[in-house]
Design a protein that fits this description.
By secondary structure, the protein is α/β, with parallel strands linked by helices. It has helices at residues 20-32, 43-51, 65-72, 125-136, 140-143, 153-161, 172-175, 178-183, 210-221, 223-231, and strands at residues 8-14, 35-41, 58-60, 82-87, 89-94, 116-119, 147-150, 167-171, 184-188, 197-203.
Length: 245
């Protein structure tokens, strides 16, 4: 008898997961024999695509609101939405940059900083967080003209890596990825300056492989999944000490 074709789960995922998710997926594939097909982009774009019937099984959003809105619209398997991570925003510059980002957001006022890359706030949660952080530091008027928008957080990183911008607001998970870790330096943006980047995931109603999709979510929720997410700079919701919410 011919072996059964391995079941494949199609996953839409926010760009801040582009390094941790392939690792999580390959461990899951190894443990279960399922195949995972990953597509990365901005959460808002995926949200629109899913509303228009895009054939994904699972949606990992960098914004907890999108899966909840899909759930309210009846597009999600009941009971599958949960918060898997809290993202962190960083300022990132190439290793040899003269910009002293250690001084925080005020370093962006330097005349050496001509362009600051942020993800497009219209559909990328990290872009909204960056915008809030700049506003809440009282620097928006002074910096607005320097902002250049990336389609998602990985394009934003490319802008700074290629010199199209001197500084970028990136996800900590990207700053910790092998490539950026060796080629640049980063400083955490004060989390008091932006709303928490709570990220959630859901199995979609249109999923062809619901059982496999649920198994994948269980794996991400399990000890191995959590440990890997933390390794890439994500916080696990509810894992902080109580009274810290």
């Amino acid at each position: 008898m011919a072996p059964l074709r391995a079941q494949q789960i199609s996953v839409a995922a926010a760009s801040d997961l582009q390094f941790v998710l392939p690792e999580l997926s390959s461990r899951f594939e190894h443990d279960t024999g399922y195949k995972v097909k990953l597509s990365f982009g901005s959460s808002g774009n995926f949200y629109s695509q899913i509303q228009n019937g895009a054939p994904f099984d699972v949606f990992f959003s960098a914004d907890a609101d999108y899966p909840r809105k899909l759930e309210a619209a009846g597009l999600v398997e009941p009971g599958t939405v949960y918060d898997y991570a809290v993202g962190k925003l960083v300022l990132w510059v190439p290793q040899n940059s003269p910009v002293k980002i250690e001084a925080g957001l005020s370093s962006l006022l330097s005349s050496r900083v001509k362009r600051i890359a942020i993800a497009n706030p219209a559909h990328a949660p990290y872009g909204r967080a960056a915008q809030s952080a700049i506003r809440n530091s009282g620097l928006y008027e002074k910096l607005a003209a320097k902002l250049v928008l990336g389609e998602n957080i990985s394009q934003t990183a490319q802008f700074v890596q290629t010199g199209s911008a001197e500084v970028g607001f990136l996800a900590l998970s990207l700053a910790l990825s092998p490539n950026l870790k060796s080629s640049g330096r980063y400083v955490l943006v004060d989390p008091g300056l932006y709303a928490p980047l709570l990220q959630s995931v859901a199995v979609l109603k249109s999923a062809g492989e619901k059982k496999a999709a649920r198994k994948f979510l269980d794996f991400i929720r399990g000890p191995e999944g959590k440990a890997l997410l933390q390794q890439y700079g994500f916080e696990i919701p509810g894992s902080q000490a109580h009274g810290n919410h």
